[in-house]
Design a protein that fits this description.
Helices cover 32% and strands 25% of the residues. The chain is an alpha/beta fold. Strands 5-6-7-3-8 form a five-stranded parallel sheet, with helices on both faces.
């Protein structure tokens, strides 16, 4: 029997277009509703353990918003999102990084956020660094890193956290071709090991025989 690990039930998400910054601003809004933007409307979706799910759709259709709801970074305006297992989200480049700290220090911080005990983090640091190809820059502040280096380090930390659910938001599009290929192979290894993968991306020929489900989002009518 398939085990559901992500349940999204009639979820909608709205954002304020303009939010008052002070008491006077809030007072002006007492008798006039806030202007909002509806990013998602009445989305229901069940994803099962080990599935590789591709989220697709035009810009502004709520793809990244949906990943944030699954990750628990954001809460739905309506509906419910339930997940089972440890989630490793790669949604916004550099999210959770302190750019003033070194790569080594950021590995410890991010791995801790992902629920990895410090003793295990220390044992996996070498593997994380080697996979990310940043050995020479491990003790350099992340603010000195290129965009590609930040992406490689974030991805490497995520895949070495032994997640049950891996969320990817076109993160692998950043970086050189050789690292992209290596990352694709790692994602495929995780998929074969039973990790549930939800990837926001434009359809790629590589995935034709790998994807279990495609979810196509359209823009909510305002």
């Amino acid at each position: 029997m398939k085990t559901p690990v992500i349940r999204i039930d009639h979820v909608s998400k709205e954002y304020y277009l303009e939010k008052p910054q002070n008491i006077k601003g809030w007072a002006k809004r007492l008798f006039r509703p806030f202007d909002t933007y509806e990013a998602l409307r009445d989305i229901s979706l069940t994803i099962y353990k080990g599935q590789f799910v591709l989220i697709n759709g035009p810009n502004g259709s709520g793809k990244t918003t949906l990943l944030k709801l699954i990750a628990g970074i954001s809460e739905p305006t309506q509906g419910t999102v339930r997940t089972v297992g440890k989630i490793a989200p790669l949604i916004e480049l550099g999210a959770g990084f302190n750019y003033e700290l070194t790569g080594r220090e950021n590995i410890l911080i991010n791995a801790t956020i992902l629920g990895i005990p410090k003793s295990i983090i220390v044992k996996r640091t070498l593997s994380i660094v080697q996979f990310a190809e940043i050995s020479e820059f491990l003790d350099v502040p992340v603010k000195r890193y290129s965009t590609g280096m930040v992406a490689r380090l974030a991805f490497s930390i995520a895949v070495h956290s032994n997640p049950d659910i891996l969320l990817l938001d076109e993160t692998l599009a950043v970086g050189d071709k050789s690292f992209w290929k290596k990352s694709i192979n790692e994602v495929d290894r995780l998929r074969r090991s039973g990790v549930t993968i939800v990837w926001v991306s434009h359809f790629d020929d590589y995935f034709k025989t790998k994807i279990d489900k495609v979810v196509y989002l359209t823009k909510a009518k305002q």
